[in-house]
Design goal:
By secondary structure, the protein is an alpha+beta fold. The protein has two domains: 165 residues, Beta-Lactamase; 149 residues, Histidine kinase-like ATPase, C-terminal domain (Heat Shock Protein 90), CATH 3.30.565. Helices cover 53% and strands 19% of the residues. It has a six-stranded antiparallel beta sheet with strand order 3-2-1-6-5-4. A five-stranded mixed beta sheet has the order 7-8-9-11-10. It starts with 13 loop residues before the first helix and ends with a helix.
C-alpha cells in the first residue's frame, strides 16, 4: 500500500534552532549606531539567508519622502538586480503590501519581480518571504528572503523572522536617533562658538571702531592748524582704517550669523528650507528651493560640509551677484548628487581676472571658492563654476552618491 503523502514541513533541526537563538542574541546585544548600521544589516542578512537556505536576501528602508524603498543591504542578489532595485516604489508588489499591512507574508513573487525589474534571475526563485521592519508601530522598511523552493515556513521560523524584523527596525530607529542627536550636538557647539566670538572679538572690534571715530574727529581739528599736510594725510589713513575696520566688523557679524544658522535635527533639506525661507528678506534676492532627491544618504559630518558650501554660495549671491532671482536645486544624476545655486546676476567674470587688476571683490570671491573646494575635496567631490549663457552664474557641488566613494583614502 502506498504511503500517504505528508506535505507538513519537517521541524527545524536542533542545530538550526540553536543557530537561530545565537543569531537573535547577537542581534539584540549588538545594535549599532548611525555610523555602521548598513554594514551591520548586511551581516545579519547574510546569516539569515544561510539559516533559511535561501537563494538571496535584501533589506530595504523607506526613504525620507515615504514614496520609495531604498536597498541598503543584499546577499546573493546578482549585480543587475542590485542596480535595478536600488530604489523602488514603496507600493511595489509584495513589499508594498507588507508595508501597508505591517504583516509578514510569503508570496510566489519570482515571476512578478522578474517582470517589474526585467531581471531574469528572479524567475528562478519559487517564493519570497517579506517581513516588515517595525518599531513602536511604525514600519521603517522590509527585508526579503528569496527561496528556491515553494515551502511553508515552520511556525518557529516564522516567529524568528518576525522577531528579527522587530530588532532590525529597532536598529534603524536607533540609527535615526543617533543621527539627530549628533546634529543637535553640532548645532550646540556652533552656538557656543558664536557666543565665545561675540563675547571677545566682536566687543573688542566695536570698541576699536568707536575709538577710530574719536581719532578722526581729533585729526579734523588738527588739520586746520600747523602741520596741515601731515594731519590731512593722517586723516586719510585713519579714514581708510575706519573703512577696513567697518568691513571686518561686517564680516564678523556675517560669520556670527553663519555660526547661529541652525542645522535642523531633521536633516540638510530642512536646514536649507530654513535658509531659503528668509533669504529674500535678508538679501533682496528671491530664492527658489527645489529638492528632487528621494533620499539623501550623507553622514552628519558630510551634511555639515554641504550646508557650509551652499551657505557660502548663497552668501556670494547676496553680496556680489547683483541678482534679483536665484535657485537652489538638489538632484541626483548618473550616480552623483548635484547641489546647484544659480542666479541671474552679473556672473563670475571677476574670478578670471589676473591679480592686481584692480578688482577688489575678486580676492574675496576667490577665498570663499577655495574654502568651498577644500570642503568638497574632503568628500571626494568637486565645485563647478560657470557663467550661464544668457545672464548670471551657477555654482554646483558634485558628490558621489555612493558613500563608499566619498570615504577618505586609508
Amino acid at each position: 500500500m502506498a504511503r500517504a503523502r505528508n506535505d507538513t514541513p519537517p521541524p527545524a533541526a536542533a542545530g538550526d534552532r540553536l543557530q537561530a537563538l545565537q543569531m537573535l542574541s547577537e542581534t539584540t546585544s549588538g545594535l549599532p549606531g548611525e555610523a555602521g548600521v548598513e554594514a551591520w544589516l548586511g551581516r545579519i542578512l547574510a546569516t539569515m539567508v544561510r539559516l533559511a537556505g535561501a537563494a538571496a536576501g535584501a533589506v530595504r528602508v523607506v526613504t525620507g519622502d515615504g514614496r520609495h524603498l531604498r536597498l541598503v543591504a543584499s546577499a546573493g542578489l546578482p549585480p543587475e538586480a542590485v542596480a535595478r532595485e536600488k530604489l523602488m516604489p514603496s507600493d511595489c508588489g509584495a513589499c508594498g503590501v507588507a508595508l501597508r499591512d505591517a504583516q509578514m507574508s510569503q508570496a510566489a513573487a519570482g515571476t512578478a519581480c522578474a517582470r517589474i525589474t526585467s531581471v531574469a534571475w528572479f524567475g528562478g526563485t519559487a517564493s519570497m518571504v517579506v517581513v516588515p521592519l517595525a518599531h513602536q508601530g511604525r514600519v521603517l522598511g522590509v527585508y526579503n528572503l528569496y527561496l528556491r523552493e515553494a515551502r511553508a515556513l515552520p511556525e518557529e521560523m516564522a516567529l524568528l523572522y518576525r522577531s528579527m524584523g522587530e530588532h532590525l527596525g529597532m536598529a534603524l530607529e536607533n540609527a535615526r536617533l543617533a543621527r539627530e542627536n549628533l546634529r543637535i550636538t553640532v548645532m550646540n557647539e556652533r552656538q557656543m562658538m558664536a557666543a565665545e566670538v561675540h563675547d571677545s572679538l566682536a566687543q573688542t572690534l566695536a570698541y576699536m571702531k568707536m575709538r577710530i571715530a574719536l581719532l578722526i574727529d581729533a585729526l579734523r581739528g588738527a588739520a586746520g592748524g600747523t602741520g596741515a599736510d601731515d594731519a590731512a594725510r593722517a586723516l586719510k589713513y585713519a579714514a581708510d582704517l575706519q573703512g577696513a575696520l567697518g568691513e571686518a566688523y561686517a564680516d564678523l557679524r556675517e560669520l556670527l550669523a553663519q555660526f547661529r544658522s541652525r542645522m535642523d535635527p531633521l536633516g540638510l533639506a530642512h536646514a536649507l528650507e530654513g535658509i531659503a525661507a528668509g533669504f529674500a528678506d535678508r538679501t533682496g534676492v528671491a530664492l527658489g528651493f527645489e529638492n528632487r532627491l528621494a533620499e539623501l544618504n550623507l553622514s552628519v559630518e558630510e551634511e555639515a560640509h554641504v550646508f557650509h558650501i551652499l551657505q557660502e554660495a548663497l552668501a556670494n549671491v547676496g553680496r556680489h551677484s547683483g541678482a534679483t532671482r536665484a535657485q537652489l536645486l538638489l538632484e541626483e544624476r548618473a550616480g552623483e548628487y548635484l547641489f546647484s545655486v544659480e542666479d541671474d546676476g552679473v556672473g563670475f567674470f571677476t574670478l578670471g581676472q589676473a591679480a592686481g587688476s584692480g578688482d577688489q571683490a575678486a580676492p574675496r570671491h576667490q577665498l570663499g571658492v577655495n574654502i568651498m573646494r577644500e570642503r568638497a575635496q574632503r568628500m571626494a567631490g568637486r565645485i563647478e563654476i560657470a557663467n550661464l549663457p544668457r545672464r548670471g552664474a551657477r555654482v554646483r557641488l558634485v558628490l558621489p552618491a555612493d558613500p563608499a566613494a566619498r570615504a577618505p583614502a586609508a
